[in-house]
Amino acid sequence: MKKTSRRQFLKVAAAGAAILTTGKASASEMHQKVNNNTLSMLYDATKCVGCKACMAACKRVNGDYGSLSYERASFDPDGLWDAPQDLTGSTRTLIKLFKESERDWSYVKYSCMHCQKPSCVSVCPVAAMTRDPQTGIVDYNKNTCIGCRYCQVACAFNIPKFQWDRALPQIVKCDLCKNTNLRQKGITACAEVCPAGAISFGKRGDLLEEAQKRLRENPGKYLNHIYGEKEVGGANHLYLSSMQFNKLGLPVLKDEAPAEFSEKIQHTIYKGFIAPVALYGTLCWIAVKNMRKHGPEETDHHKDTDKQGGA
Amino acid sequence: MGHGEYQKHEAKIFTPSFIVLLVLTLIGFFLVALRFIKGIGAVSNMSDGYPWGIWITYDVATGTAIACGGYAMAILVYIRNRMHYHPMIRSAILTSMFGYGLAGFSVMVDVGRPWNAYNFFIPSQWQANSAMFEVALCVMAYTTVLAIEFLPAILTTLENTKWEKAQAIIAWLNPRIAPDKEALQQKLDFVKAGAAWLKPRLDKVLIFIIVLGITLPTMHQSSLGSLLLIASTKLHPLWHTGFLPLLFLINCMYIGYSIAILESVISCYAFKRPFETKELSGLAKIIPWLTGIWLSVVVGDLAWRGQLTKALSFDFYSRFFLLEFCLIAAGSFLLFSSKRRESIRWLFVSAALIVVGGALYRFNVYLIGFNPGKGWRYFPALAELMITVGIVAFEILGYQVIVKILPVLPRLHTRQQLDATKEAAQKA
Description:
The complex is a heterodimer of chains A (311) and B (428). Chain A is of the alpha+beta class and 311 residues long. Chain A has helices at 2-28, 53-62, 119-123, 150-154, 181-185, 189-193, 204-217, 258-270, 274-298, 305-309, and strands at 39-44, 94-99, 105-110, 129-131, 138-140, 161-162, 171-172, 199-203, 237-240. In chain A, the strands form four sheets. Chain A has a three-stranded mixed β-sheet with strand order 8-1-9. In chain A, strands 2-3 form a two-stranded antiparallel ribbon. In chain A, a hairpin with a 5-residue loop joins strand 2 and strand 3. In chain A, helix 1 crosses helix 8 (258-270). Chain A is globular and about 85 Å long. Chain A starts with a helix and ends with a helix. Helices cover 71% and strands 1% of the residues of chain B. Chain B has 15 helices and two strands. Chain B has a two-stranded antiparallel sheet. The interface between A and B is large, with 89 and 88 residues.
């Protein structure tokens, strides 16, 4: 027994060592290229007046294509207003007001961040979430989605939403009006209708320059941070604000994409599918050898078990 | 693979427990129907913050670990060459088959768009970066492998049965609607001959399928841990580590051996058979090694990442971590003593501690340690729980029925003979 326990130990220890080395490897190679030619939006919270024209336009334009619907408030039985309280399976974009005191408050707009290395795309088992390498748009295809909601688990911003109340549900998230406004007018609906100039639309590189210019020319007005520039490996949705971003519901995140870490480990284990095949081969060899030893006794219904007991 | 080492359990099928389990199963399946008509939100408390609830956490992530008895036993018998455990393997495979089959069923209840699941078989949709893709394919393959591994039990029965019940029903039917006896007998003979033809051929290749049945769980049990690697901002640092795949793999092994002990004790107790003490204490000897490695990896990793103080801070997360840790440590500690390993009572207690602790680890990773941000809360709804209860009830129900119609449990007289010969050998 002692011998075999040691064998077991060595086996597990070897597996542990293998995973340990992958962990180290994943920590060292954490750089990835950022594409600054992708389509992008810059939201300036200090310019936003909270009129919610962007929310209305998004639902009007994407309602049919994106399976969005109006959400009633409890005080409004006639359904006069669309009153979503959060991003939901019916709402792709949302304006919220965060009030710290009478003097300190800020609006914030929520919608998909369109990450450069999106977690949702990395985890989707059937490639229903995709990222267009040219435009950078992270898009969702309901025709392949199985509704496993792994994208929701993976997204650090909690952006993808699921239609919990429907028998035939889908995932809902912003696709930069890819098949609606962007195709027809070359601009997203929210950016098109914003009356205060709080939402700019363009190439990521241009918008980053614009954001840096605003930071330079208005010292003291903004926090000196462009949210989305480096978070999770860079996002195409950029934010400027005078208030701490985590107070606005935008989480404090590291610069490395979570998908880099998980993919590195998964890729190391399954590189070229060598490890599983090797495992299968080795186990087969051992098992067949073991069976051969017992071959002739097999038919005798194991009357010989006592011999193997001490083996 | 001698088929003579197994036997049917001769007992009534329709017992009181059968009725209770059937009622629970029917309630569960009624709620499943409701979920498909009114949407997942109608029966569950899952939300956009907690998109995975008790179905994924228990039925899939924990249920498949509890169904690892077949995996653990197969390693022991075929890889570590402990052929004297072979009589225990068929019931372990049966429970694994139920565990995995019903985990697959729960996934189909849980996913929002199950009609799109065919995309798993379309190579252009494959997404090798996704741990979920690996888990899904592996679990489907393994469930098939388990069914093939179990096939000899069915073939033996098909070959040897005299179809007495079926004949009785036919005789009882009105002659006008009863089928032609001659033709039916011919068809039954054909099935018999088919089973007799297939069995030796299957026996020849079965070992390669069994080894596949060892490789696949090694892959997907570790991937069940990999699933949460990406949630680096949501999973508490006590559990989020690059070692998740390794920890899940070892976790499923010691749960597998422990559950094999529990299953044997419970079914011997329920079916009034003699306890398999000798085999069980042999199994119990392996467990402390596995848990020992697991616990050292956990502690070493926490120390390496500088999270030991968090583990001992006694806040909400720390308490659940310590509970999980202590359950497993206590169970393993009990098993270090060879005296306790000979006692069915202690075997049962320590195996139960380890299964509960090991399952709690999976709950901690998938639910308790998962925090998507402010404002989100999750506790399963009653209907959601009842679906899980219904699925578990169906599992036990199926096991109860199948051991009574197929040769699954170890043959008793063979075992007693073996014990006798063993003692004689020891004396000699």
